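Hey Z.,

So I finally got round to the flavin mononucleotide thing we talked about over coffee. Here's the setup:
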Amino acid sequence: MNPVPHIPESAPFSLEQRAWLNGFLAGMFSAAAQPAGASTPVMNAEPLLILFGSQTGSAEGLAKKLAKESSARGYAPKILALNDYEQASLTVASKAVIISSTWGDGDAPDNAINFWNWLKADSAPRLENLNYAVLGLGDKNYSDFCGASKKMDARLEALGAKRLVPRGECDVDYEATAKAWTESLWAKLGNGSAAAGTPTLAAAPIENTNGATKLALAFSKNHPFPAKLLTNLPLNRAGSGKEVRHFEILLGNSRLSYEVGDALGVIPENCPDLAAKIISVIGATGDEPVALEHSVTSLRLALEQHFDIAKPPQELIAAVAKHAPDLAALLVVDKADDLKKWLYGRDLLDMLQLAPGKIPFTELLPLLRKLAPRLYSISSSPKAHPGEVHLTVGAVRYEAHGRKRGGVASTFLADRAEKSGSVKVFVQTSHGFRPPTNGDTPMIMVGPGTGIAPFRAFLEERAAVGAKGKNWLFFGDQKRSADFLYEEQLTAWQKTGFLTRLDLAFSRDQVEKIYVQTRMLENAAELWSWLEAGAHFYVCGDASRMAKDVDAALHTVVEKVGGKSADEAKAYVAKLKSDKRYQRDVY
Ligand SMILES: Cc1cc2nc3c(=O)[nH]c(=O)nc-3n(C[C@H](O)[C@H](O)[C@H](O)COP(=O)(O)OP(=O)(O)OC[C@H]3O[C@@H](n4cnc5c(N)ncnc54)[C@H](O)[C@@H]3O)c2cc1C
Ligand SMILES: NC(=O)c1ccc[n+]([C@@H]2O[C@H](COP(=O)([O-])OP(=O)(O)OC[C@H]3O[C@@H](n4cnc5c(N)ncnc54)[C@H](OP(=O)(O)O)[C@@H]3O)[C@@H](O)[C@H]2O)c1
Ligand SMILES: Cc1cc2nc3c(=O)[nH]c(=O)nc-3n(C[C@H](O)[C@H](O)[C@H](O)COP(=O)(O)O)c2cc1C
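And the result:
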């Protein structure tokens, strides 16, 4: 067989273009070497476990891509969520790849928590037979970057498993790093069977961002759909301390489809005033040409649309510190806490104001990160609103260090998206956050604040298909008179009996705090009877406090009414999770 031509690193292509071209050439040549219609040979295929931990689908997407590639390389991949580790039989498996994101504060995502509890326990088995590789997904804005995957990697090694390649660590813009890491993995593993073909075109990346060859027509994170914003309405009433807005977005002829439980990715634009202030403080005009990955634009547009100009990256802080002795004094190990406090509420402009005119844009831009998309839980059912997608978004606005500030995406949607003409969106498929497949199964939904979003969608979906299962919603917010989001729709459903129970917890209508978990505990016996009747339990909204307290309340219900010890309650809740009857969409 002729050797497969290969585009070298020195060729004038981006990493993504090169990988795509190499995949394409490999596919052409392996197809040419096979009789027409022959599929990729997988004789004596070697098993390869691919395990993922993923909250919003990115790690799961990479795992699926890797599984495709591995089949083309002659492996027999078995892909599982990490919580299904029992089916993976890691003590006898020979090769496993783990791809996991990190959530909370260095924690494993929900579908990897049971796995991590099993792995870290003293009772975990030795894994001497296992050869493994870990790829982590995370976000450098969090202090414990890729914390969950780091811990998994270290624990696997401690249990005697052998690391195949060094752990990969991907920041928000993860595709290029993941691709390079995957290439290093294949370089180490080789093919899974002697008769394996090289990767076929199907296994090559199907997304093509350079616009030259349109293989992938579907809209995605790298190729978002410019959608029209139809509606932008406040959901709070007079007297509210909040600004939650209801958005309706037209999907038009995009052929973008979604299911309830999915999230919508929004590619935001920065506030133009903030970009203008940055241009001024660095002493530029804004008209300077800037080369991006595939195009040339002006400095102004680059700062408005391409770069993250909110959170200052470490590298930029270090560059500014060279001109700002007070800041430099905080950049020492024992001042880490002081630095963190000082940075709180400060953005890129605050940094650059410490060194006006000292950092030219040519030095600044390479230090900035790409503006990341934001995810929003979809609050509509496509069956109730064909061709539209609805969002329920809390506008982030606050004042810090004498200046008014706004969250990038939430204020873009609230203030600027209508004028900008379109909102670039993509659908982020959920891996498990779905209403029960059986319409007769009862659902318990806990969604205070913007956490109501997916449950409006779940209920619209059940109403549209005439599902007969019982529905119980716990909703809460600050004040009943001002913050009862979607009050009319929810109370109408309650009146007809479609919403079997609606328990409300308004926290600021009385002296003591009443939260959704207060209502759960007040109704513990009934909650328990729903769980025992097979109900699915869902939580959406604030991750840092609410979701933890609701989880604790759930354990209390199981203990107190179910008559279980603390350990038995833990096991009961873990089983709910592994049976996919306890699902969370928390942020
Ligand atoms: C799966 C998923 C689903 C989600 N669904 C929803 C949803 O349905 N509705 C919704 O509203 N959001 C939702 N979110 C959150 C959403 O993605 C964004 O994080 C949120 O809108 C804020 O983004 P932003 O760009 O407006 O703010 P950013 O520009 O990201 O700014 C937020 C940051 O501002 C800083 N900040 C905020 N307040 C203060 C303050 N008082 N003082 C100092 N600093 C402060 C903090 O550093 C904070 O992290 C979801 C997130 C995920 C991951
Ligand atoms: N990670 C991110 O990027 C990001 C971005 C935006 C928002 N968020 C989170 O998303 C959350 C949603 O915001 P939101 O404005 O819709 O609602 P929210 O702030 O969660 O408030 C909704 C209700 O929950 C109550 N609450 C406060 N602490 C609670 C607890 N421990 N347990 C149960 N309920 C509790 C609030 O009461 P009180 O206010 O009276 O205490 C309020 O009545 C925010 O809290 C924020 O943390 C995260
Ligand atoms: C609420 C929240 C908490 C997060 N916590 C961390 C963290 O502690 N460390 C980290 O590196 N990344 C953290 N991330 C970033 C995610 O790991 C990252 O977005 C990842 O790409 C998500 O992958 P997934 O879709 O497979 O879950 C967090 C993201 C969110 C929204």
